[in-house]
Design brief:
The protein folds into two domains: about 325 residues, 3-Layer(aba) Sandwich (Rossmann fold); about 90 residues, 2-Layer Sandwich (GMP Synthetase, Chain A, domain 3), CATH 3.30.300. About 35% of the residues lie in helices and about 20% in strands. The chain binds zinc ion (ZN).
Length: about 425
């Protein structure tokens, strides 16, 4: 790699920061680079060992898990295989909030971080994550970067949507420059010009997928200079619409890859250069139950997460599925979407997963890739906002698909050629204003 003085300086700054904040990160990165070559049997054996350790620690040191395992008449010694995980009770976000203190173990750590989930809906969750688990999580992220020859200290563009005051903006610019990153603060002309200039030398881009998409559209429509040095464009936190990829490839010369995780679970999966989302099996056990994800984190002991319903619909690939990249880590075929709110018909209720199926069918049958947002203001009525322009034939196809799922129970309107930018917040594919 290029060892220019500037880059060596960035690396030095980065290493000093990591050394103070995350002393065990080098250990974990080394571990994960070795375990990425493990067979699935080796990975499963490691998972069982870590699961047994976790269940023992939770039972001995967390009042919540002691009670809940006792109530289910399970002892740590009952966990003899990974299958036995199913004997343990499921935990929800409400449990994490309501029994927060009791879930925390009484173990003492030299160093703890406080993790926060930004509550886009509902209360935000706070919990302690010990240094080792925090470093494991960062190392998992950096292992994913390594598949694209990206070093975390390299110049990167960061897309994270908040509304900043001028004062905050100055503070953020300073913090960003220490981490060798820059971001777009708004879509005003001078802001975009500044961003495009920085982009020329950037090695990777990451953040909200809708913001990356929005920026790609601006670059394409204004014929701005395309970045030539990008090695990775990574979307997180939001659904990556298939329809995004064309603009993104045009602007950045490659498709957007996906990282999947949450603060309370850590990194769950990371997309490899062959296009498969591999589970981070050294860090999590993932179950799929009625299309829903249930996650056990194998590394966090200060705040154990055992069989947690994260609230996403997913689809796991068959355990026999293989990937050209050679990794044997199991594959998650798709993260279908947030379970979120209920859709109300005139008489019946429906899961918001239906929207996913409607648009997936259009993509499969008609090769029609659409970016959408569905809004419900009252029961029995839906508004479908579509970014792309639709001709009358395409409109009829969409109407037919909607009717397949909602029959006569729903009135709906379709508005196409819409601007779907959620400029400073997460772009949601379903918004309900009922309740
Ligand atoms: Zn792969």
């Amino acid at each position: 790699m290029d060892q220019s003085p500037q880059l060596m300086f960035e690396k030095l700054i980065f290493n000093i920061g990591q050394r103070f904040r995350n002393p065990s990160i080098a250990y974990w990165l080394h571990f994960l680079k070795a375990s990425e070559k493990w067979t699935s049997e080796e990975l499963l054996a490691y998972q069982l060992k870590k699961l047994q350790e976790l269940v023992g620690i939770a039972y001995e040191n967390s009042a919540y898990y002691k009670n809940s395992f006792d109530a289910a008449e399970i002892k740590p010694s009952d966990i003899k295989s990974l299958e036995d995980l199913k004997k343990l009770p499921i935990i929800t976000k409400n449990d994490l909030l309501n029994y927060n203190k009791e879930i925390h173990t009484n173990l003492k750590y030299r160093k703890n971080f406080q993790a926060n989930t930004s509550g886009t809906s509902g209360e935000s969750l706070k919990f302690n994550r010990e240094e080792s688990a925090d470093s494991f999580n960062r190392a998992s992220l950096f292992r994913g970067y390594s598949w694209y020859n990206v070093y975390p200290w390299e110049l990167n563009g960061y897309f994270w949507g908040y509304n900043f005051s001028e004062k905050e903006e100055i503070k953020i610019r300073i913090l960003d420059s220490l981490q060798n990153r820059f971001r777009i603060f708004n879509y005003r002309k001078e802001s975009i010009d500044f961003f495009a200039k920085k982009l020329k030398n950037a090695k990777y881009l990451h953040g909200y997928s809708s913001m990356i998409y929005e920026t790609a559209k601006i670059i394409n429509s204004q014929n701005l200079e395309k970045p030539a040095n990008l090695k990775m464009v990574k979307g997180t936190s939001e659904k990556i619409f298939e329809a995004y990829q064309e603009e993104i490839k045009k602007a950045f010369g490659q498709k957007m890859i996906s990282e999947y995780g949450a603060a309370e679970t850590g990194i769950i999966a990371f997309e490899c250069p062959k296009g498969n989302m591999h589970l981070n099996m050294e860090g999590v056990i993932v179950e799929e139950i009625d299309h829903e994800i249930v996650v056990t984190n194998l590394q966090m002991h200060a705040f154990p997460i055992i069989r947690y319903k994260l609230g996403d619909y997913i689809k796991l690939a068959a355990k026999t599925a293989t990937c050209e990249c050679g990794m044997q880590h199991f594959i998650i075929e798709e993260v279908t979407g947030r379970i979120g709110q209920t859709v109300y018909g005139k008489n019946n209720k429906y899961p918001s997963l239906y929207f996913y199926y409607i648009f997936k069918n259009l993509a499969l049958k008609q090769s029609l890739l659409l970016t959408y947002q569905v809004i419900q203001e009252e029961k029995g009525k839906l508004t479908f906002l579509i970014e792309q322009p639709l001709d009358s034939r395409q409109l009829i196809s969409l109407e037919n698909e909607i009717e397949v799922y909602f029959k006569n129970d729903m009135e709906f309107t379709i508005e196409h050629s819409q601007n779907l930018t959620a400029q400073h917040k997460k772009l949601k594919s379903f918004i309900s204003n009922i309740e």
